[in-house]
């Protein structure tokens, strides 16, 4: 099993600038704001694949896919173009036969497991020198190929969940004739409807933290640093991942009736209302902030989710977490998920031309500004939070069939 690793936005192992903590969004207006089927899938050459799916009675559906150039590009449904043979195969299935994606994924996971088990059973050659070096290098290459395939399986499943909800992922940002980048359809209602009422209250607070008093302004346009918007998008993906993880625990504890009682909840709520340190913009040093939003204006901590935010039962529940629990729930469980966030964000916003100085700061002299409406910015954040929520779901699903995350 490839060694999984945790990663948070506090100290990302990835060099991507988008996974660095986002600063406040600065605008030119000087505003700052906060049925079960038997399956057979074969990948037999780069860019070519064949899928056979049928029941035990012999019903068969064939989907023969040729090279990527012969059909609609995957960029039509998602900004990230998948590169591995399995990824390209799945991207074509997403376009032509999206309902077959789960069966194709299940077969590919079985194959990955067989390959991994086979590599474990192999013994290193007894000879020394070149033979061992070559053996280990081949093993490294095969492990990397499996990881890339696994990442793209996860990504394809996330994209499919958006397609099932009849929501188009935002394409790579390109200015329209007026110079604005947000020419995509506004699908806020669909995105909001994918979350539970408790989760949506938290999302509303997240939006308010980012947009401030512009939350209800959907038409005004501002010029914003592209890097900053990309960082907020990546951070919002992390928030969606964290939120879905917390909601699952919340629902479980509510079902088995071990949630805090009313007296404890009222005590926590009163602490939030009366905590002058939070309202004054100060954050107690002994309380660890959630890594995703602690660097946004009016950031949150385990003692409060932003000044002036509405206190809900789910938020009260999260506030009851100790620092260790909050850190654990705010941590990505796999390198693959981290890589997906990085690659998807860079495909959406482009790879920025920046330099990180020796002091760890960003030289953003080549950073460009983009024109985007506040309604477009809200759409970006809602999509990002939903992407993170879906990523948690598919990561858990895939791990149940091909173990790769930490316990």
Topology:
Layout lengths: L24 E2 L5 E2 L4 E8 L2 E7 L5 E6 L19 H12 L4 H21 L8 H35 L23 H5 L4 H15 L9 E5 H30 L6 H13 L1 H4 L33 H7 L3 H7 L5 H15 L5 E2 L5 E2 L5 E5 H26 L8
Antiparallel strand pairs: 1-2, 3-4, 4-5, 6-9, 7-8
Helix pairs in contact: 1-2, 1-3, 2-3, 3-11, 3-12, 5-6, 6-11, 6-12
Description of the structure:
The chain is mostly helical. It has a domain at 176-393. It has helices at 85-96, 101-121, 130-164, 188-192, 197-211, 226-255, 262-274, 276-279, 313-319, 323-329, 335-349, 374-399; strands at residues 25-26, 32-33, 38-45, 48-54, 60-65, 221-225, 355-356, 362-363, 369-373. The strands form four sheets. Strands 3-4-5 form a three-stranded antiparallel sheet, covered by helices on one side. Strands 1-2 form a two-stranded antiparallel sheet. It is globular, with a radius of gyration of 23 Å.
Number of strands: 9
Mind summarizing the main beta sheet? 3 strands, antiparallel
Poorly predicted regions are: 1-15, 26-73, 267-311
Helicity, as a percent range? 40-55%
Any idea what the shape is? globular
Helix and strand run: EEEEEHHHHHEHHHHHHEEEH
Global Rg: 23 Å
In percent, how much strand structure appears in the residues?
5-15%
The N- to C-terminal Cα distance equals 13 Å
On the 0-100 scale, what is the average pLDDT? 74
Number of helices: 12
How does the helix and strand content classify structurally?
Answer: mainly alpha
Oligomer: single chain
Task: Going across the biggest sheet, name each strand in turn.
Answer: 3-4-5
């Amino acid at each position: 099993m490839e060694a999984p690793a945790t990663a948070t936005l506090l100290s990302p192992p990835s060099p991507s600038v988008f996974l660095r903590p986002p600063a406040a969004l600065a605008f030119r207006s000087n505003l700052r704001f906060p049925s079960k089927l038997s399956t057979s899938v074969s990948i037999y050459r780069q860019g070519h694949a064949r899928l056979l799916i049928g029941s035990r009675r012999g019903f068969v559906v064939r989907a023969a896919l040729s090279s990527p150039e012969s059909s609609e590009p995957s960029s039509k449904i998602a900004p990230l173009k998948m590169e591995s043979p399995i990824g390209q195969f799945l991207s074509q299935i997403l376009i032509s036969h999206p309902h077959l994606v789960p069966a194709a994924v299940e077969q590919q996971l079985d194959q990955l497991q067989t390959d991994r088990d086979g590599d474990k059973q192999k013994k290193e050659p007894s000879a020394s020198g070149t033979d061992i070096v070559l053996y280990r290098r081949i093993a490294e290459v095969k492990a990397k190929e499996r990881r890339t395939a696994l990442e793209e399986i996860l990504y394809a499943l996330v994209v499919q969940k958006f397609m099932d909800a009849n929501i188009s992922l935002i394409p790579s940002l390109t200015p329209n004739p007026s110079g604005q980048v947000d020419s995509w359809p506004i699908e806020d209602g669909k995105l909001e409807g994918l979350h539970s009422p408790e989760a949506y209250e938290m999302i509303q607070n997240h939006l308010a933290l980012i947009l401030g008093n512009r939350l209800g302004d959907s038409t005004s346009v501002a010029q914003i640093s592209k890097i900053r918007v990309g960082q907020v998008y990546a951070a919002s993906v992390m928030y969606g991942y964290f939120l879905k993880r917390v909601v699952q625990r919340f629902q479980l504890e509510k079902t088995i009736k071990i949630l805090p009682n009313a007296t404890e909840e009222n005590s926590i709520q009163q602490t939030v209302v009366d905590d002058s340190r939070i309202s004054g913009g100060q954050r107690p040093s002994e309380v660890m902030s959630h890594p995703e939003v602690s660097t946004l204006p009016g950031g949150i901590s385990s003692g409060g989710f932003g000044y002036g935010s509405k206190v809900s039962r789910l938020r009260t529940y999260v506030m009851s977490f100790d620092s260790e629990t909050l850190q654990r729930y705010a941590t990505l469980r796999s390198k693959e998920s981290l890589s997906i966030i990085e690659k998807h964000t860079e495909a959406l916003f482009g790879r920025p031309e920046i330099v990180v100085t020796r002091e760890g700061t960003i030289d953003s002299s080549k950073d460009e500004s983009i024109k985007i409406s506040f309604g477009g910015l809200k759409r970006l954040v809602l999509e990002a939070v939903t992407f993170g929520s879906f990523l948690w779901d598919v990561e858990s699903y895939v791990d149940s069939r091909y173990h790769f995350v930490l316990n």
